[in-house]
Structure formats: structure tokens, C-alpha cells
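Before a colleague's protein record goes any further, I have to sign it off. What it holds is a sequence and that sequence's fold in C-alpha cell form. My question to you is simply how this chain folds and whether the C-alpha cells agree. Thanks in advance; the entry in question is below:
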Amino acid sequence: MRLFSVVVLVLLAGGWVVLNRIGGDEYRKVVKLPMEGLRLQALSPPMMYLLERYKVMSKFPLFFFRIQRSVQKLHGQRYSVERTLLYVSEMMCYSWLLLLLGCMLTLGMGEASGLAIGGILGLLLPAAMIRDMHSKVLGRDHDILMELPELLNKIVLLVGAGETVQKAITRCVEQKKQEKDHPLYRELIRMKDDLEGGYSFQQAFENFSKRCAVQEVSIFTTTVLLNFRRGGNDFVMALTDLSRVLWEKRKAVTRTRGEQASSKLIFPMVVIFVIVIVLVGTPALMMMNM
């Protein structure tokens, strides 16, 4: 088993060095792309070379499409393909490092368990990374859905007071300029910049909807674009009806988050219960043995 571990270790380390020499230079610019949460960009070029050399992305389109969709929501549509490649390469790097660690443990202990542990962790960690990214996307969508009804109410009030739709949205964005980290207002600020840069209201609003990639935002965008030219009571009524629907969805999201929070408390409560039993039961057992 030690001989096998040595062979695997040499193949993994030597293969990375060879691939880095062959195709590493092509991906130096991709590695420099800003992407939150990545730690192993320096080790990624050989993995990216393997992915493109053997056309792995075209062989598993559904898998990579889901990852790319999540990357687009979290980091924008620009360079989404390169960022998807970088993220998958990061997962491969973790698997590669865990296999190396497993080989070293096998060499140190002389048992196959080290290599088996490294292989299992090398499969579980990428799956955990994908799940974590999808949970971040879900949290982003929920944040947008939680804030959208309040934004819509403000727009209804301003339009009812005589403001145009464009000015009402611009005023709402200016009031929330400090909340650049919120996904909804971050995209609205970008939409405002597009308007100031020469885009028409329709183009900027459609681009805003595409960047958000949330069904409720698409409904909001469609409602606004269909009715904003009419103005008056028809427009206000359309937005008011939409507001009622969005508030109901916000309530559903709030209930879901509450259920998730309560379920997360179950494990700590069980641990505390076990500790209390041990603390109470140990003195009683000691007294019985005496």
C-alpha cells in the first residue's frame, strides 16, 4: 500500500508541475479575476487546462450550466464563463490537495485508511462547495424578495404624488445609496448609472431584471414597462395589485427563514440536553456505586 501511495503521490505532484508548465500561462489572467471565497487561485491553471483540453464543460452541460447560473447571480454576467471555470478548478484543487494529504497519511501510518479518507473528503468537499454556493444564491434571492415590496410601496406613493416613474425609482435609489451591499439596491444603482450613461429607461430596466434573475423582479419590470407610459390611476392600481402579491411572497419567505432558524437550533439543544443529563446523572451513579 505504501508503494501505491508513493506512485499516486508522484503522479499527482508531477502531473501538476507538468501541466502548469504546458498550459499554465494561458490562464494567468483568469486567475486574477476577483471572486469572493476562493483561496487556491495560484494552483488553478493546470486544472483549467485539463477542463478545456478534454472539453469537460461540453460533456456535462447541465452541471456546468447550474454552476454558471449561480456564478452569474453572485458575481454578474461579465466573465461568467471564466469565473465558472475558475470555481470548478478551485474544487478540483481541493480534491487534489486532499488526495495528496491522504497519500502522505498512508505513508506515515502504513495503512490504506489515509488514502481512503483523502479520497472521500476529495469528493465531499466539492459537493459542499456547490451546496454552499447555491445556498448563497438562495439567500440573495430571498433578500431581493424581502426588499422588493417596500421599494414598490415607495414607488406607488411617489407616483401617486405626481412623480414620474423614472424619477420615483431614482429617488428611491438615492435614499438607499449607503446600502451598496444589498443585492437589490446594488443592481438599482447600476441601473441608475446606465440611465445616466445614455441607456433608455426600457433598456436599463430590462438589464436590471436580467441581472437580478428573480421571477418577482421580472414581473415587477414587466408591469412597470407595460404601464408607465399610461401613468395615472391605471399605473398606480397595477403596482398596488402587484404589491399585495409581493407582500404575500415576503411573508412566505419570512416563514421559511423562521423554520430554517428553528431547525438549526435543534442540534445545539440536543447537545445541551445530553450535557445536562451527564452532569445530573454522573453524581447519582457515583453515589449508587459507593
Notes: The radius of gyration is 27 Å. The longest helix spans residues 113-160.
